């Protein structure tokens, strides 16, 4: 962090450094954090609720509980990273699977009333690209992609300085990558999610008769069969990313979540697959980096990035 020398008089500057507020709202849980403008988490709080049985009043209570962390901080604003379908313009959560109380929930209005701060909301997977853009490996770039891996799969794309977030657009998990694949939770067949999330990896490792089923353990086992399963997983992840590269040529892909456990080999397999997909040599050769932010902080950094993006 760069420090301004205390002796230099800056009469126009505020007395205290202003902070960034971030909230992550997912089924069953609300997390809130106060961050410095450099993206350091200074304080955090969490509240839980019963996803299936909660009423909107229960959501209000959980939000108020977590938002207690903002008391006494001079916030530039609060960015909310929400699961499900959101309407950023109206500040609403439209729909979250298995959480009826969040259907049409006015999250920016409620949080604004609780804190007095300006509040914005965006979809969690899209938003994390702003965490990378302001605080991570995407700094200085106007176009790149940020990828959630593991239980939750999704891609956020920054294109020429703007987060691609068209109304009705999604984060990529339900792109069709196989014409006759497995049935997905959404009802369709062959979604990217059916072959490139933790559930697929566990099932594949079990079907192969491997004792270990987590990515970390498979990579560490040294078993050649486990290695094959890991490579297959990396190829499946690359399937969706190749489509993103073909359409938007982000050039840089920053992987968050489970991919960290895959180590250098996993990263290399994904990167090589992307490079094969670049048709002409004049284009930027795609690079894959693994994000260094703590997994729990990725969405919060995205929320803080949303605040900075709208100053
Ligand atoms: Zn699907």
From TrEMBL:
A single MF term (Gene Ontology): oxidoreductase activity
Gene3D superfamilies: 3.30.420.40
One Pfam family in the UniProt entry: ROK
Keyword Nucleotide-binding: no
Keywords for this protein: Oxidoreductase
InterPro entries, sorted: Ald_DH_CS_CYS, ATPase_NBD, ROK
Family annotation (PROSITE patterns): ALDEHYDE_DEHYDR_CYS
Record family assignment: Belongs to the ROK (NagC/XylR) family.
Protein name (record): ROK family protein
Lineage, highest ranks first: Bacteria, Bacillati, Actinomycetota, Actinomycetes, Kitasatosporales
